[in-house]
Specification:
Strand content: under 5%
Distance between the termini: 42 Å
Oligomer: single chain
Order of helices and strands: HHHHHH
Number of helices: 6
Low-confidence stretches: 1-11
Number of strands: 0
Amino acid sequence: MSDTSPPDRAPEGGSAPRPPARRSIAFLDRLRRVLDRVLGVVCIVLFVALVAIVSWQVFTRQVLQNSAPWTQEAALYTFVVLALLGAALVFSERGHIAVEILVDKFPRPAQKIVAVLVQLLIVFFALFTFVAGGSRIAENAWGQAISTLPLTVGQVYLALPVAGVLITVYSLIHLARILSGEEAPTPTLDDTTEAV
């Protein structure tokens, strides 16, 4: 017989359900894992493509004595997209460089306040600079052709708002986890290496 009790009440004879806040954090954790996997695969594919492009460029230049003209721009734009998406992936792990020596000396409540402010600043910066600014740059460069590739510069620059949205999502996840007490205000080495 299936349980028809509302999710906020304990089922008869069962264990107590998780509170709504905990279910929300669990959902955010699943979302983060899915984004990490997808973004990780995309970054791996871009890195393999970058290595293949540069290898082909070296081969055609050194062995064939006639460098393939498209390889330089392809390598450049692949690297740009890889760097932006890779930076977003590192936000998932809170792995970017941070100077925390002063914040670590604060009492725990003050550390939490600083961590919340930092995440809010990251969200603001990502939305304002990457999403809004990147969208505008992509729009302005949409018609600018890349001479050796079947793309426009604007299409490549779409990586800016995409990275901005991803950074925003990751920062909001960290913000929710910090506020709920599920995540430490300052990441430890164990926190940043657990996904590896």
